[in-house]
Amino acid sequence: MKYSFIGKIFRDGNRNYIKIPFNVWETCGQKGMIPVKADIESVVFECKLVPKGHGNYYIPVLKAFSDKLGKTGELKVSFEIIEELSRINSRSPYTKKEPVRKIDNIDLVLQPEAGLCGQACLAMLSGADIKEIIKIMKCGKWQASFSRVIETLNYFGIEHSEKITYTQKKDIELSKCCILNIRDEKSLKGSHMAVYFDKKFYDPVYGISEKYNRAKIISFLEIKV
After folding, report:
1. Containing structural domain, residue 191
2. DSSP assigned state of 201
3. Co-location of 110 and 178 in the same domain
């Protein structure tokens, strides 16, 4: 679905943005760093919307695009939410019909360094070496956001649900396989990722467990197996 409005480019710090004039959470039903295909006066590019809290978002506009637009007045703006940015998936040898592997078991992969939990989870799901995961993602420690993880799942042809489920501190039933975002006071970011598969938790920080404090699960993404 395409969302359209009239907007203006403004500068905040050393970057240019266009403010989206409606609540994205309520209108689009998505949260987090949302990947979109933006169209500003027929200048088309992919980006991730920048969350500013309470459903307010900005479209980041690179200087090359703002220079090309050459306008400071009102602009015709539209965007549509996409599954992922094409920078990873465009060079993938895998598809959903021919994924990297069938996920019928999980082998624990511990993160080799703090801040690589997302990469370790992807290694567990794909069977690829964590060094290969880092190379594919092009991101290192503390950089594996949920949106970046989803892009990499798509690279490997691993099917997943379209939306992240937020638990809101409720003890809800988990799907057979999913990636979890877990509250962790010891983590630099305040949370880390883990894999849940067939009633066991595979945590790249703390190891394998059949029991977990589910109140600490912030959100999860179902992996279809």
Report:
1. 88-222
2. E
3. yes
